[in-house]
Every structure is written in C-alpha cells, then in structure tokens.
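Hi all, posting the design record for the shared folder.

TITLE: backbone redesign
STEP: 1 of 1
STRUCTURE INPUT:
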C-alpha cells in the first residue's frame, strides 16, 4: 500500500490490479487492471500525478495518469524480468527505477518508456527494498542474517549489515528453524533502514553500516515494516496479528495495535499535514481489511475498507438462484446477492487463521471447515503468494448451518485429526469424511453414522459424490481412483491404473471424467463396471485439480492455472478458453438452473459467467487441441 504525497489517495496492490481510494470519503476512485498477476510494487511520483505498478508474474510495469485515472504508458520487461519487487521515482520524476526478482535494477525514461542504462545486477535475495529516490537498494541475503546495501546507479555494494539471527526456536523443546528476513524499509531521507525477521526482532540501521537499535517485543514473525514521513516513527506488523509502533530515536515502544484477525501484510504512514488523517498509520491484513490508526495514541480511527481477502476455496449457489456463498482461506463465508453483486452477510463464526479444509454444501446453506490457529505468515513474496507457519494448533472439525448461524455438533468432531477430505451429498443431508484408510458418512440431521468403508490404500485424497448420490469416488494424484456404490457398500472393480489429478461426474451420473497430467479420459458407468469411452489429449500438460461437466453434459471444463478450458465431449476438441483470473482457479460450480458458471480463485475473486452466451459462441477449434 502507498499514500499519495498529498495523502488524499491510497493505492492498494492486489492480485487483480491496483485499487485507488479517495482517503477523505473512503470511496474507490479507480481500479487499474491489465496485470496478469499479483501487484506487490507501487510508487507515486513526487508530484502525485503518476502511479507506477508492477509485481509477480507481470511482464510489464504500468504507469497510470492519476489526473485522468487512465493508463499513461506500459514499460515492457524482458521475459526473465517478469517479477518486479520494488519501484521508485527519481526526485525530478523523469526516471523510474525498478528492481526485479533476479536482482536486476533498470533505469527507465518515464516520458519515452525506454531504458536509460543497462540492467545493474545486485544479487539474488529473499526480500528487498528501494530508497524513496531509488538511489539505494537493500537486499536481504538468503542466509537470513545479512543485509547488503547497493548503489543502484553503479551496481556496487556499499556496505553489509549483520545482526539478525539465522535460527530461532519457538520454545525450549522445539527444534531450531531458519529465520529469514521478511521486510525492510528506508526512511524518506535514506539515512536509516529498518528490517524485520522471523527471529521476531526489528533492527534499525544507519545506512553507513552502524546499527542503531534492536527492537524486541513481537511474539510472531515480522512480516512488514514502515517509517513515518518524518522518519521519527517506525511501525512493524507480525504474523500474530499485532502491530507495534516505535520511537526511532529512543527505540522505545509507543503503542501496540490490536484489531486485525490475521497476518499483517502491509503498513504505510500518511504524510504529515494531510487532510483528515494526517500522519495516520494504514495497515492491511490477510483478514481482508485496511484499518487506519492514530500513530500517537494507538487508537483505531476507522476500518477503512474490507474485502481484500486472498484465496477463495469454495463456492456454492443457493437453490433460489438469487444468492451465492463463497468461502475464503480463513474460513470466513460471504453471502452475495446475484442481483446487485454486493455482499449481504459475512459469516465469521468458524473463522481460523488458515483453513486446511473449507467445503460448502451444494445448496450453500452448510459449511464444514477445519483450520489452524496460531502465528501464520501469509504474505506477499517476490515470487508470488505464500503461507508459512510456525507451530500451530489444529482446530476441531466444525459443521455450521450458515443461514441460522448454528453449529451442528456430532461424531464428525472426533475425527478431525485424521480427516483428509470432506464432501456433502447432493441432497445436502450427508457429510462424508475421507480418513487415512477409510470413508465415513453421517446423517447431518440425526448425527448417526450411515456407512464406514475401508479403502484399498491411503493415497487418493479427494472425495466426491455422483449427482444422483448413488456413487462415491476417492481420487488423487498419488493413487488409483476408487468408485463405491453407496447403497450396496461395495467398490466397483478397478477400472484404470492411472492416478487422477481431478474427477467429475456427468450431470446424469452415467459418465466420469478423469483429469491426468496430459489428458482427460472419459468413462461410462455400466452395471458391469467402468468402460473407457474416449481420451482428450492436451500437450500442454496443464490440467490441475478442477474438472466439471456442463449442465447438458456435452462439454467438459478443466482449469489450467488461471484459465478455464472448454472441451467437446463427443469430438475431444477444445472449444475455447475463458480468461480473467490472475491466480490458480480453486473451484468451478454451475448454478442450479445451469445458466451461470462461477469460478473461484486464489486471486481472491469469484467470476460469474453467462453460460448460455458462452456456449452459443462455441465451435470446435481444431487448431487449439
């Protein structure tokens, strides 16, 4: 996040683009997209007229005209420079300095978009920062203990800073673990650097190499740091949801800020003398909120905005056709109106720091989750989104009826430690659990066990019912799929010797699609067992974990990282590719009337597709297969 120099606008980098907010009224004034991946590098020109953005898996740096809220120019990167980690404008705004994941620094002419100097390489790193005018780069060494300061113009190392510990222990009985430097920032005048590490300390350095102070008090990993505009205050956020504000001159803690419900991912101070929120601290968290704080008193001023949450893990349509439920990585569930495309309710009763499992029933009314609680570093990295965790507490399995905010208690709570996968039956009455060597299913109304199946091996990890509820399939990339007749409690004879990355039943339950590394195989379900129908090849080897059939059964949809591919079942030809997501797709679900396709992604969005319009334009494309 970055405030504009006059403090009237706040720019927020996300997986779908750059959001720009008007600070006085909190309203979104622009959404700059055209990025193919995560935006984690932002810089305002000193006059506040231009915003530069770049980030992970972005082949370009975009310059935006903030007077007209439109794109000014695009700086094209070479293929190996496709991940930008830091940006800075020169003091006269004629030059933009960029730092990429390989440690290459490039000077750009802002007016022409051309390179002024050949790239200067400053070494590989885990974390990096540029000074406000771009003249210095701080590089966190991969050994976790050293920081190297470089002159960006000459590409020469200025000084090496030593002080962070390479290993840490959570407790006396814990093994030592590597402690990486996670965050760094310069004061506006470039004379002081702050660094935060997994060793839970914040270090202050003079950029001539002398250490100013070591600040202690955090109980979680330091994930982000920031200086105030006058350089007298430094703020640090951690994986334990805490923000601390420190006095730079004395090294004393001024305030501890509590309120966020997940990792602190970004901090930035508003410039002094700006309207309404002068010198306030803005914090962004993996809980999806941005909050403003009084940096003098530590008092929360306002929850500025909500909704910046990563990773949609599950989506379900309500039967009424007007409502959609989406579950996020932290086990919060949002209920959306399909008419207004606005959020109606946020369900937080089952919230955890990180959900290992999060599943919605087909009608969207029930939600089952198992999560972890404890310090979890969910952070933007130079190489993309990532989550690392210190020792944490695994919670019990929770089953909720979202519409009544009621937790349903039952025997499923006692198997949480052995649960590998969970699924609901199509009629929303049965909860099935995949354990290491068995499948258990319970009636959710009576809490009674309906069946207990002993599986052949523990490797296939995923679980799904056929649409008619008569079959239950276990599959996964490390084992052979198993198909069970639910009523007879018997397994169908093994029908394939290939593991399946993904699996889907046709709407009439008479066909199965298996997604392999480089193909999709189609099988017919017969009374004699499974019979191979056809093969859809894909030389790109891009199939992931998601497969589904269209409502009429004529099309198979597969996810290919950020894209959705459509395949004709009869011919095996690729019909088209749907694009829009910027991170891997996690779920594909059709509405109950078959008119809307919803796709949920790790980019934190749910995209809705008009299926009638999509299928009306499809013809098999021989060139795409």
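Okay, here is what came back for every position:
SEQUENCE:
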């Amino acid at each position: 996040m970055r405030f504009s120099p006059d403090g009237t606008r706040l720019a927020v980098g996300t997986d779908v683009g750059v959001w720009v907010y008007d600070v006085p009224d909190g309203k979104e004034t622009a959404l700059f997209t055209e990025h193919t991946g995560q935006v984690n590098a932002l810089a305002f020109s000193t006059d506040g007229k231009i915003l530069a953005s770049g980030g992970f898996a972005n082949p370009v740096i975009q310059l935006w005209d903030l007077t007209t809220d439109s794109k000014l120019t695009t700086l094209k990167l070479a293929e190996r420079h496709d991940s930008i980690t830091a940006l800075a404008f020169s003091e006269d705004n004629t030059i933009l300095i960029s730092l990429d994941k390989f440690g290459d620094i490039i000077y750009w002419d802002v007016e022409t978009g051309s390179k002024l100097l050949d790239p200067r390489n400053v070494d590989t790193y885990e974390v990096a920062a540029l000074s406000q005018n771009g003249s210095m780069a701080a590089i966190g060494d991969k050994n976790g203990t050293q920081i190297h300061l470089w002159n960006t113009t000459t590409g020469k190392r200025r000084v090496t800073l030593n002080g962070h510990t390479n290993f840490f222990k959570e407790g006396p009985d814990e093994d030592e673990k590597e402690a990486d430097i996670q965050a760094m920032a310069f004061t506006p005048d470039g004379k002081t650097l702050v660094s935060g590490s997994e060793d839970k300390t914040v270090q202050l350095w003079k950029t001539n190499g002398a250490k100013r102070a070591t600040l202690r008090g955090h109980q979680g990993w330091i994930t982000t740091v920031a200086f105030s505009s006058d350089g007298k205050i430094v703020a640090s956020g951690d994986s334990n949801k805490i923000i601390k504000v420190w006095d730079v001159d004395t090294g004393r803690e001024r305030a501890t800020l509590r309120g966020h419900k997940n990792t602190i991912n970004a901090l930035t101070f508003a410039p002094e003398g700006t309207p309404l929120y002068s010198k306030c601290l803005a914090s962004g968290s993996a809980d999806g909120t941005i909050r403003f704080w009084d940096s003098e008193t530590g008092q929360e001023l306002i929850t500025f905005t909500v909704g910046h949450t990563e990773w949609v893990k599950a989506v379900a349509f309500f039967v009424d056709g007007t409502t959609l439920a989406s579950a996020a990585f932290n086990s919060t569930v949002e209920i959306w109106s399909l008419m207004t495309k606005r959020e109606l309710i946020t369900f937080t009763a089952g919230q955890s720091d990180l959900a290992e499992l999060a599943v919605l029933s087909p009608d969207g009314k029930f939600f089952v989750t198992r999560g972890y609680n404890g310090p979890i570093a969910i952070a933007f990295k130079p190489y993309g989104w990532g989550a690392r965790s210190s020792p944490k507490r695994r919670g019990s399995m929770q089953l909720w009826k979202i519409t009544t905010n009621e937790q349903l208690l039952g025997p499923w709570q006692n198997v949480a430690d052995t649960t590998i996968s969970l699924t609901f039956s199509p009629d929303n009455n049965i909860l099935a659990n995949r354990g290491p060597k068995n499948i258990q299913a319970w009636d959710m109304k009576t809490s009674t066990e309906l069946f207990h199946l002993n599986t052949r091996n523990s490797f296939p990890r995923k679980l799904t019912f056929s649409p008619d509820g008569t079959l239950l399939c276990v599959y996964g990339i490390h084992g052979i799929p198993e198909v069970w007749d639910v009523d007879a409690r018997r397994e169908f004879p093994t029908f394939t010797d290939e593991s399946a990355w993904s699996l889907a039943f046709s709407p009439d339950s008479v066909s199965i699609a298996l997604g392999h590394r480089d193909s999709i195989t189609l099988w017919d379900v017969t009374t004699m067992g499974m019979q191979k129908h056809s093969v859809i090849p894909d030389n790109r080897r891009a199939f992931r974990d998601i497969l589904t059939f269209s409502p009429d059964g004529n099309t198979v949809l597969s996810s290919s990282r950020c894209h959705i591919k459509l395949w004709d079942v009869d011919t095996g030809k690729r019909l088209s590719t749907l694009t829009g997501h910027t991170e891997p797709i996690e779920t594909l679900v059709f509405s109950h009337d078959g008119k809307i396709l919803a796709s949920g992604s790790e980019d934190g969005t749910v995209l809705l597709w008009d299926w009638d319009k999509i299928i009306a334009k499809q013809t098999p494309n021989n060139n795409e297969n």
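COMMENT: Residues 240 and 292 are 19 Å apart (CA to CA).
Let me know if anyone wants the other runs.
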